[in-house]
């Protein structure tokens, strides 16, 4: 396995070397059954939504205004299934998957007793942590794209495609719609880097992978509940999930950037704060397992 | 969280251990510093951005009012943030249904109907986008969570589009020029015009320095009622120094606290908006409601739709204005303290649909008062108070409860 190559490498500092470590991390992560199962669950969500909408509207009725965002437009344009699926998975499924992978990143290795072998390689703890974080961020992107691609496939199979109407009422071409869908997927993936950093920090605190995953997912649920309590509105702009639905602003014409930039800034802040906290913890921690 | 230094068996000696412990703890300074810097930035940047009030040539209140009157902005686009806090009890959906009922609506049945939709502006905080290009092309969008309500006026057509339910409302603009001339409604300009209508000798109008609004230099016009007894504390209008366009409107109640109405541009541009902004084609599969199908819609043209449902309902207006709306209404007093009164002819509580089962509920929202006139119920919000006497007389005004009771006593 590629971890063996890592040990063989003698040169102490080489940029390519970091990529080698990253590649090894990526293959380890994406080859895990657990990861594949998570991605399969994510891919199944748009299939379920698509079939449900198709069945409900097979008699020609409209799906109505309830449910996740954009759901009423799916029957007219399959591309909207991408937006609906992302809106449906972003509050829980996607961050839960990220929480599992991020929580497992350090604590899982410690649990399995492989962390000290990773540290035998002359990579240094900071670089290992950075590689772990990069892996989680790449997983964020991969998970989002899995949802988007699955939704696009189902949408194309079940519903018509073509020019689409933005939520501001203006028409854009299908090609531009696809471009916006890609931008939305990127915005959703970027929305998750805060959770990823939080999960990584939790992962450095404990030696049990399960505990780290449970804590991360628990925090996620707690924050989402707190975000619904009106009395806390002064605090809510600082919750990592507060601006998550801002990705829908990319479907306005012209695009409304205020909340999108706030979201990106907030995610960057979480990444820096919890990333550096994870670094402070991990580089000073005693690795006994 | 303190790192454990004690388990480190390779480090020899107490002193070494303590030093390494300190070094380890020092690493936690990084996240703490980052958080501190972020908090400071969030706290300080708005304060720094606010500090520089622009230096503009002196202007009198009269000149400023003329500037607003002669302002001829035909093309603009921008984002408006509007917060209304009327102090109404939070009734959720019931509130909006009652209000659209109050606005004289038939059952339109379409969620894209502008009149029903724009009553939502009467409470809470909303973000609007406005664009205008001459008198024939206007667009107003109400930004919602992952959805948007757009009202497009282009030539003869008026389109309302609710993206959440994918419903379209179509009407035609009337030819009457006085409505056509209006700038996009719900903007600070609309509020300012209503406020300036109320200016007479019972009002003090002053220029209250300058401010930066949406990145533009503006004068602040302060309108205050001279008499006591009004619930209106002050109205402040920020007027763009260059174009004379009102950029921000704030109405503070006499009782203090947060503004009742606060509408201002957060971003504005006086360049010509793209022509495609005003193009609207109903999307495939959308349910289209034609104006004539939407109940008694014949009197609902663009301007009136806004006038009835829009937030200008809550802008201060003179008694005259109120008088026009309700038949058989008398006005007591003048200026800001004018009280509208009319006789419902009924017994006590609001007649018609509002009675019956709802009667008890409505009762619980008001306060019982007694005076020389007999007894009645006062319904109060932060701005408008209404007294309904037990013999069916109604007194409404932007005045305090005491002023209402006094008016009722005098009327007896």
From TrEMBL, chain A:
Claim: Membrane is one of the keywords in the record: yes
Domain of life: Bacteria
Transmembrane annotation, as ranges: 33-53, 79-102, 133-161, 181-202, 209-226, 264-282
Pfam families named among the record's database cross-references: ABC2_membrane_4
Keyword list, A-Z: Membrane, Transmembrane, Transmembrane helix
Span of the signal peptide: none
Record's protein name: ABC transporter permease
Species per Swiss-Prot/TrEMBL record: Streptomyces coeruleorubidus
Automatic annotation (TrEMBL), chain B:
Spans traversing the lipid bilayer: 28-49
Keywords, in A-Z order: Lipoprotein, Membrane, Transmembrane, Transmembrane helix
Family annotation (InterPro entries): LolA/LolB/LppX, Sporulation_related
Region described as Disordered: 1-25, 282-325
Segments of skewed composition (Basic and acidic residues): 287-325
PANTHER family the record matches: SPORULATION PROTEIN YDCC
Protein's name in the database: Outer membrane lipoprotein carrier protein LolA
């Amino acid at each position: 396995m590629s971890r063996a190559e890592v040990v063989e490498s003698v040169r102490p500092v080489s940029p390519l070397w970091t990529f080698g470590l990253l590649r090894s991390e990526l293959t380890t992560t994406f080859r895990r059954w657990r990861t594949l199962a998570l991605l399969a669950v994510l891919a199944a969500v748009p299939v379920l939504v698509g079939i449900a909408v198709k069945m409900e509207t097979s008699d020609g009725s409209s799906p109505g205004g309830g449910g996740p965002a954009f759901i009423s437009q799916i029957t007219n344009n399959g591309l909207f299934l991408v937006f609906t699926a992302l809106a449906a998975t972003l509050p829980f499924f996607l961050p839960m998957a990220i929480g599992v992978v991020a929580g497992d990143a350090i604590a899982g290795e410690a649990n399995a007793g492989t962390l000290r072998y990773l540290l035998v390689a002359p990579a240094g703890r900071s670089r290992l942590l950075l590689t772990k974080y990069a892996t989680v961020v790449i997983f964020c992107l991969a998970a989002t794209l899995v949802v988007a691609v699955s939704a696009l496939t189902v949408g194309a199979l079940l519903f018509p495609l073509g020019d689409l109407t933005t939520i501001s009422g203006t028409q854009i071409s299908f090609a531009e719609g696809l471009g916006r869908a890609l931008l939305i997927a990127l915005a959703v993936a970027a929305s998750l880097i805060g959770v990823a950093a939080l999960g990584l920090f939790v992962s450095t605190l404990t030696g049990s992978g399960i505990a780290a995953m449970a804590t991360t997912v628990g925090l996620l649920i707690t924050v989402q509940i707190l975000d619904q309590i009106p009395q806390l509105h002064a605090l809510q702009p600082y919750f990592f999930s507060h601006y998550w639905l801002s990705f829908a602003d990319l479907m306005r014409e012209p695009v409304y950037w205020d909340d999108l930039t706030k979201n990106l800034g907030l995610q960057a802040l979480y990444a820096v704060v919890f990333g550096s906290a994870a670094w402070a913890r991990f580089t000073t921690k005693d690795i006994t397992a | 969280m303190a790192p454990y230094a004690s388990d480190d068996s390779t480090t020899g000696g107490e002193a070494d251990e303590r030093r390494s412990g300190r070094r380890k703890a020092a690493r936690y300074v990084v996240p703490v510093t980052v958080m501190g810097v972020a908090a400071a930035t969030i706290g300080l940047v708005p304060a720094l951005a606010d500090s520089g009030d622009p230096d503009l040539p002196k202007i009198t209140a009269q000149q400023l009012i003329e500037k607003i009157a002669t302002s001829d902005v035909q093309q603009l686009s921008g984002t408006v943030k509007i917060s209304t806090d009327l102090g109404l009890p939070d009734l959720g959906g019931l509130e909006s249904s009652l209000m659209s009922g109050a606005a004289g609506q038939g059952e339109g049945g379409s969620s894209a109907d502008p009149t029903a939709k724009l009553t939502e502006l009467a409470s809470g905080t909303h973000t609007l986008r406005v664009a205008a290009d001459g008198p024939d092309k206007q667009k107003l969008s109400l930004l919602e969570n992952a959805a948007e309500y757009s009202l497009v006026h282009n030539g003869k057509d008026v389109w309302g589009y609710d993206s959440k339910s994918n419903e379209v409302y179509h009407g035609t603009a009337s030819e009457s020029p006085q409505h056509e001339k209006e700038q996009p409604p719900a903007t600070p300009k609309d509020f300012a015009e209503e406020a300036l209508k109320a200016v007479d000798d019972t009002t003090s109008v002053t220029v209250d320095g300058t401010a930066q609004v949406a990145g533009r230099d503006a004068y602040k016009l302060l309108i205050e009622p001279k008499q006591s007894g009004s619930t209106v504390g002050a109205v402040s209008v920020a007027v763009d120094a260059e174009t004379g366009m009102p950029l921000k409107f704030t109405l503070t109640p006499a009782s203090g606290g947060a503004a009742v109405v606060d509408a201002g541009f957060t971003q504005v541009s006086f360049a010509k908006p793209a022509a495609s902004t005003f193009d609207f084609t109903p999307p495939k599969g959308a349910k289209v409601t034609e104006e004539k199908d939407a109940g008694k819609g014949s009197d609902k043209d663009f301007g009136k739709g806004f006038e009835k449902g829009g937030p200008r309902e809550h802008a201060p207006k003179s008694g005259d204005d109120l008088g026009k709306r309700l038949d058989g209404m008398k006005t007591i007093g003048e200026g800001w303290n004018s009280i509208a009164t009319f006789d419902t002819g009924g017994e006590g509580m609001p007649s018609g649909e509002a009675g019956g089962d709802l009667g008890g509920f409505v009762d619980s929202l008001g306060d019982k008062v007694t005076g020389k006139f007999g007894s009645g119920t006062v319904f109060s919000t932060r701005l408008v108070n209404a007294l309904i006497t037990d013999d069916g007389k109604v007194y409404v005004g932007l005045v305090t409860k005491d002023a209402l009771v006094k008016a009722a006593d005098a009327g007896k």
